[in-house]
User: What shape does this take?
Amino acid sequence: MSTEPRPVRRFRAFACALASLLAVWPLAAPAALRVAVISDLNGSYGSTTYDPAVAHAVRRIIELRPDLVISTGDMVAGQQLHPPLTSAAVAAMWTSFHATVTAPLESARIPLAVTPGNHDASAYEAFVHEREAYGREWLRHRPRVEWVDDAKYPFHYAFSLGDVLFVSLDVTRVGAVGADQKRWLDALLEREAGRYAHRVVFSHLPVYPFTRGRETEVTADHELEDILRRHGVGLYLSGHHHAFYPGYRDGIRFVSQACLGAGPRALLGSARHAPRAVTVLEIPDQGAIVVRAFEAPGLTREIDRRGLPRSITSRYGTLVRDDLHTVPAHAGAAGRD
Assistant: This one.
């Protein structure tokens, strides 16, 4: 048995764990921002517990001290129809999520920026009380960021961190994004985009499909895509499809997040379910944003792009894996006007 004092043993164990993480997730250059992206953490309908991998992954994220954590939705397990969840049940789910995810990040002073998912804040009329609860919960947990437009927080809103403009879109229903929200986005980007070196947009549902069984659960909104492209948005993050894939199309990287909770799915063109994972963005002052994903819960094994399909084709178009296409500097890093 070791004769070292317990605090020394604990510090040694922590140092070893941190060293193993840094071996595959090295510290960024001083000028770079690091952003961790988590998604789809929920379990079965009404669940107030989380897979132990969720808490483990959160602890690992905190050890690496990112500048920001983004959640692309489905943090709780709402949207149950038969019977609908009571207000008390919805409140209990949020209490559990905050204890598992929100509180540890707040204690570590790491801002958490969220976007609504269909299981959190579905815009369908049957779930209006869940959507209202989502709004109340996140008004109590506003991240400490530089707000650009928070009039509709926590649904669609914009903030900045360093030289990066981040925009959340409220996308919980299949089909084109509402005209009012697209007008808001177009005006926001027209006014603000040129002030930042990078623009990152995130939502729950993606523009294009990524996984088997969810081929039609997308916006397929090419008007939205045109707005993004016109204003130099090079990175669009989404959840809902439960698999990591960094796709590229006409100047924009559409990156799907793996889930941390239940239901990993197989990518289109793949026969095996994707691993649970956390996406990591390294955002330099100059050049394209680096996008990587690390398998949960330990976050020590990087997902090898070469094992992902070379492209994903659907009736809405084709996404090419981003390492097979030269990503220009403006794909996530646009110069000022």
In short: Residues 332-337 have pLDDT under 50 and may be disordered.
